[in-house]
Amino acid sequence: MANAVSAPSRNLFANWRQNIIYIGFVVIFLIFAVTLSDKGFLNPNNLLNIVRQTAMIAVMAIAMTFVLSAGEIDLSVGAVAGLTTVTVAMAIAVAGPIGGVAAGIATGLAVGMFNGWLTTRIGIPSFLTTLAMMGIAKGVAMWISDTAAVPILSPGYSWLFGGGSMGPIPVLLVWIAVLGGLGHIVLRRSGFGRRVLATGGGETAARYSGIDTANIKMKVLVLSSCAAALAGMLYAGRLQSGRFQLGEGDELSVIAAAVLGGTSLFGGKGTVIGTIVGAMMIGLINNGLILFGLEFSQQLIARGGIIIIAVALSQKR
């Protein structure tokens, strides 16, 4: 009888750990809703601002889920986003919105293919490759912009890439929903997603089963850089300018969002839906701490502590 009772209890406990990100999101939201009700936390504009401020992190984190699931990492996403804001703004000034979009896509493809080539063909670990690319991308952005902001004078581009809304729904929320749904289907329902998870779960076994693991890693690194470039295009559209500082430090939030959502740093496990919730949870925490009136240093401490607790609770023992 004891065993019959304990088995369901263990399963329930395991499911509780697996779903800690969703439970934590609801708990934190309720705490902020009660304690910050007089400061406008539940105001629709404030809630939509959380989405707007978190959208770029969510877009990059969706792709980071694939990278981590394949057993790799990309530390250059924040710098690539910043570089893209500059290339897009400069291209729009010369060739209009279409030229700006083309420049953004080209930036993501070029960086991703270079990262992938160094990692899969030369054999440099992705940690070092993308760490170096972080500095290169930021340096190039500073160089070509002369460290000055480059304005974007294109209402159509700004509306589509972050600055507009469809009634009460921000365009940025539409981007998250579309990319999140697509990413979830690809990772869970497609052959490519299964090969990504197999590569991260055991590269040697994956190779013996006929999977071209080098090709998979190349593709996920290109995907990550393209997502970072898209995030840069969204930054540029929302703020109507290109600045090398945009995206600075985002790589930490992106990785944290993926890990909070249940993606393993060691590969073989990932969930796009969890990643999006993880990104929104980080945005929720940031917004709530600001409304509490904490100083920036205190916000960093509180945010780090909450993330550590959430990740620790989600780990299996």
UniProtKB/TrEMBL annotation:
Asked if the record carries the keyword RNA-binding, the reply is: no
Cited Pfam families: BPD_transp_2
Q: Which GO terms describe its molecular function?
A: transmembrane transporter activity
Give the keywords, sorted: Cell membrane, Membrane, Transmembrane, Transmembrane helix
* CDD domains xrefs: TM_PBP1_transp_AraH_like
Q: Where in the cell is it found?
A: Cell membrane
Sorted alphabetically, the Gene Ontology cellular component annotations on this record are: plasma membrane
Q: How does it sit in the membrane?
A: Multi-pass membrane protein
Asked if Membrane is a keyword of the record, the answer is yes
**Membrane spanning residue stretches:** 20-38, 50-68, 88-114, 126-145, 165-187, 220-237, 272-294
| PANTHER family per UniProt | ABC TRANSPORTER PERMEASE PROTEIN YPHD-RELATED-RELATED (PTHR32196), RIBOSE IMPORT PERMEASE PROTEIN RBSC (PTHR32196:SF72)
Please identify the protein, giving its name as recorded: Ribose import permease protein RbsC
Q: Which organism is it from?
A: Yoonia vestfoldensis
Q: Which gene encodes it?
A: rbsC
